[in-house]
Amino acid sequence: MRDLFDKIYKDKGPLGKWADQAEGYFVFPKLEGPISNRMRFQGREVITWSINDYLGLANKEEVRKVDAEAASAYGSAYPMGARMMSGHTDLHEQLQNELAEFVDKEAAYLLNFGYQGMVSTIDALVSKDDIIVYDVDAHACIIDGVRLHQGQRYTYRHNDIESIDKNLVRATKMAEKTGGGILLISEGVFGMRGEQGRLKEIVALKEKYNFRLFVDDAHGFGTLGQTGAGTGEEQGVQDQIDVYFATFAKSMASTGAFIAADQEIIDYLKYNLRSQMFAKSLQMQLVVGALKRLDMLRTMPELKAKLWENVNALQNGLRERGFDLGTTQSCVTPVYLKGSIPEAMALVKDLRENHGIFCSIVVYPVIPRGLILLRLIPTASHTMEDIQETLVAFSAIRERLENGTYKRMSAAVAAAMGE
Fold it and tell me: In what residue span(s) does the Aminotransferase class I/classII large domain sit (predicted)?
């Protein structure tokens, strides 16, 4: 018998094996100062493109005032206990009702965390006889939820309607054998590529197949649709989404999440969501803060308007300079470049230290080998000056990547990594 930890000692995992070269700088970096368009990284001011504060609410004076007053009034413990036992309040119900109305659903239910809530919702919606059909590029929380499923599951090619159709045929045949139903899961906005899920076309397949649609709209809520109600509103199919999910961690600049659906579905879920039944209630200070943030989403359309002014300026500027942004249809702004992992590390170091630009870096195995993805998240807090400086910086780093500067700079890193 081997020691359980042998595998840990021998294999740190696809990302962990780079810890010596990457930790503290490329991964687990420490941004400092108030959440804003400009923060500090290792003593330098940087333009920050890696904060999901889409509407710029995180550091708004009126938001911080409500947060502080709620913390003073309730502390960080209240209410104590799970919702079903002792942690239920009028304000939790008020927030749920307002969220349901905002996303045009009969009812909603609060979740303590988005990741945890997504996993638990999938688990509660299906039994071993049911079949799950989901996008191969789904977020990790969806994949982990699907892993709990004891029945059959099928993946379809990313945003590929023909592949969805074929897998619904397979799922239908299987469901006829098991006597179960079909749950199809898509994201409203895919957070890495920025593409919207093809919800309108997926909904049209309901004419051919009997399935229910579950949408993770973490990046669409607050940013898409006429009122900000998300991707379903943007595509005109909100009423055809059977279970709608969104998190407070993006546009709401907070912690928590919610699901929304018909009243009977929510009544079932709140009695069967294990992660909520056996976990402490969402803290009151977060509930009060979410009520304030939601009110601002509803009554201040200028926040979303400013966000999209910045999104369009950044994305159009990058495209005009010949950068590949893939097929983004949202605020998420991916910039694809060609290069090795050591080159990517040299490039990002140059970007941060010499140009004062902080954005996220994504490399293999998250994306194919030989590609570098720089992911930018525009917010309503950014300025045209921020955007112009970033466009100039990106032109400079591309030139250095193409003329081999980063390849020469990264030789030592490549040797250490065995590249």
Answer: 45-392
